[in-house]
Amino acid sequence: MNDGTSTRLQPVRVGFANGDAPTLVTTPEELDGVLDELDRRARNDWPRIVLMDTDDHQNYFSIGVGAEMVPVNHADDRPGAPVPCYAHSVGPDRAGEPQEWAYSNTWNEVPSERLIPADVARLAARHWVLTHERPDNIRWEAD
Questions:
Q1: Is residue 119 part of a domain?
Q2: How many Cβ atoms are within 10 Å of 84's Cβ, its own excluded?
Q3: Among 6, 11, 49, 79, which one is most buried in terms of CB atoms within 10 A?
Q4: H helix count then E strand count, the chain
Q5: CA gap 64, 47 in Å, rounded
Q6: How many domains does the chain divide into?
């Protein structure tokens, strides 16, 4: 898995899906800076989902911020995309209570088994931004 540094890449939009203008990032360091700021804002408010997408609007990646355990989702509608096209992360907690996450100005219940450590999710986000491919450092399950 590629977590590269200082690599220029195809611009990716990153932001809360709440009507605010997303930020364009072109390096892993820029992604880290944006996610750090969004995480800080979420920790002062409530856990939120950050959406990342490409210019073709056919390949999306989302990551939770504002908590130590976060959900990750990937959707890829491009020809030849991995199967399943829509997938979510699978974490270790199969017995916990669902958690509320803000996404697109609504509350969404996320089952605890979809939460993975935030640092693992961050590594996956860096990989996705660099390659636009589903990261292999986490376990995926069909949505």
A1: yes
A2: 15
A3: 49
A4: 2, 10
A5: 7
A6: 1
Mean pLDDT to the nearest integer, 31-55: 92
Angstrom distance (rounded) from CA 75 to CA 35: 20
Please report where in the chains the tokens 């932001």 appear, as a residue: 15
Nearest Cα residue to 49 out of 140, 113, 123, 121 = 121
Contacts of 80 (CB under 8 A, 6+ apart): none
Q: At residue 48, what are phi and psi to the nearest 5 degrees? A: -135, 160
Query: Which residue's entry shows tokens 């605010």?
Result: 20
Residue 44's SS3 state is coil
- Is residue 6 in a domain? no
The answer to whether residue 103 sits within a structural domain is yes
pLDDT digits (tens, 9 = 90+) for 112-124: 999 999 999 999 9
- State the residue range of the domain holding 20: 12-142
What would the two tokens of residue 114 be? 């979809």
Length of the chain: 143
Structure tokens at 143: 């949505």
Say if 44 falls within a structural domain. yes
Residue 4 has pLDDT above 50, yes or no: no
Q: Where are the beta strands (DSSP E) in 12-68?
A: 12-16, 23-25, 48-53, 59-65
